[in-house]
Amino acid sequence: MEVLDLSNNVLTSLETSTLDGLFNLRILDMSRNSLGHLPADIFADCTNLTQLQLSKNNISFLDNTIFHPLTMLEGLYLNYNELQHISGQIEISTCEPGTFKNMNSVRILYLDGNNISTIEKDTFQGLDSLKIL
């Protein structure tokens, strides 16, 4: 499977194993759901993912290692969530340095419409191909 569209549903949570075995997945759309949190290892098998759409959910927290397996990612859409922090060891409303580590292919990153008030130095380090923020 290369494309999985789970948008416009009523998903509120996902298990760590939900995406297991989807090594060929390139596009994943989980926008317009009610997801509040994603397990840290949810994308472990999705190493070929190029587009990840998580817009318009209720996501308030993301572990700072959640995107590390996604080295092929070109588009990451996190807009219109309730993001307050990224990582389990930081203050609310803060993005921690290294969150986007190893994401050299990301060209588009949407974070608008969230509750982020502090972005620490080097948070976007590793986003070498970033064109739109």
TrEMBL record:
Chain ranges passing through the membrane: none
SUPFAM superfamilies: L domain-like (SSF52058)
Alphabetical UniProt keywords: Leucine-rich repeat, Repeat
PROSITE patterns: LRR
UniProt cross-references to InterPro entries, sorted A to Z: Leu-rich_rpt (IPR001611), Leu-rich_rpt_typical-subtyp (IPR003591), LRR_dom_sf (IPR032675)
Name of the protein described by the UniProt record: Uncharacterized protein
The organism of origin for this protein: Branchiostoma floridae (Florida lancelet)
Lineage: Eukaryota, Metazoa, Chordata, Cephalochordata, Leptocardii
